[in-house]
Amino acid sequence: MHVPLLDLQAQFAPIRDEVLAAVERVCDSQRFVMGPEVDAFEQEIGTLLRVKHAIGVSSGTDALLVSLMALEIGPGDEVVTSTYSFFATAGAVARVGATPVFVDIDPVTFNIDVAQAAHAITPRTRALMPVHLFGQMADMDSIADIARHAGIPVIEDAAQAIGASYGGRLAGGIGAVGCFSFFPSKNLGAFGDAGLVTTNDDALASRVRLLRVHGAERQYHHRLIGGNFRIDALQAAVLRVKAPHLSAWTAARQRNAARYRELINARGLTGLIACPVEAQGRTHIYNQFVVRVAERDRVKAGLEARGIASAVYYPVPFHQQECFAYLGARPDGFPEADHAARESLAIPIFGELSDDQLQYVVDSLAALVGEHAGR
Prior knowledge:
Layout: H1 8-12, H2 16-29, H3 36-49, E1 53-57, H4 60-70, E2 78-82, H5 88-95, E3 99-103, H6 114-120, E4 125-129, H7 140-150, E5 155-157, E6 165-166, E7 169-170, E8 177-181, E9 195-199, H8 202-211, E10 216-218, E11 221-222, H9 233-242, H10 246-266, E12 273-274, E13 282-283, E14 289-293, H11 296-305, H12 335-343, E15 344-347, H13 355-369
Parallel strand pairs: 2-3, 2-4, 5-8
Antiparallel strand pairs: 1-9, 6-7, 6-13, 8-9, 10-11, 12-14, 14-15
C-alpha cells in the first residue's frame, strides 16, 4: 500500500471548479497585486480568526520579518525564542540585525520551555517569540505573564497553527502580533507562498500595512523603509475558496489523530511510540502528527520500504546550525531539543487518509519497533 505524507490532489478535487472560477475571476479583472480580492480575503480571514486586523503578506517568513520591523526590533536587540522550529523563526530575527536567544523545549509538547524563557530575558530583550509547533499553541498565559513583567511584546509564530486554540482563544489573537504561513502543505494552503499578520493593535496594523509596500503611504512617497511583502491577488482568491473548508479539514485530521492513538494503544506500542500530547485547555490542529521513536532513522527507512512516507521535523535545532555558530551557544545546553531531533518522526495525518491506510501505517510501525515494550 502507498501512503503519501500529504495528498493535495485529494483535497483539491472536490473544490476544483470553485477554485478555478476564483482564479478566472482574478484573470478577468487583471488586478493581480492588492485590490478588492485581497481586501475581501483579509476581512474574511480576520473574522475567521477573531482578530481586528488581518494583513495578507507574501509568506510566513515575511510575516515574521515585517512584524519584527513594525516593532522596530533591530541591531543590539534580543528576541527570545525556541531552538526547535522551522528556520524562518530564528532567521527572521537575524535578518533584522537582532540576536536570537534560544531556549530549550518542553519535552511533552515540543513548545518553548516557559521557565527557561523567563530566565533568558535580559535588559536587551525586545520581544518573546513562542512557536505554536506542529499545530498546538504554546503556554500563552505563562508567556503573556513573562512578557508583561518584562514590558515586551509577544510575537506568535503561528505558521503551523491556524485555528488552534488556547483557553478558547485562537492562535494569532493573544500576542501583539500573530504570523501565519499559507505554504501549500499547511492546513490552509495557498497555491504557492503566502502569509498573514494578525493584530488587535490599530497602530501596529498601520505600520505593517505600510511596511509591506516599501513604506509608501502613496506611490513614490516613502515614510518608512519597508519591503515588498504583498500577497498576490491570485493567492488571496484561492484562500478565499479554501478557508470555509478549514474547520472540516482540521476535524478530519483530529479524527485521524484519535484513530492513530487508538490503534497504537491496541497494539501495546505506547512504551515504544510516544504520540503527540494535547495539553489541557488547548486544541491541536495537527499540522503534523509527530511521534517519538527510538532508532528513528531506521524506522523511517523501514516505513519508506513499505511505501509509507514520513518526515523529520526537525533534524538540526538552531543552536547546532552552522550559521548561528557566532552566538556561541553551549552544545549541551538544549538536551530536550537534541533528544527530539533524534527521535521525532512525522507520519501521514492529512484528512483524506482511509482507515485502511491508517491501519497499515500502525501495522508497519509495529513490525519495525516490536509489538510490546519489553521486546
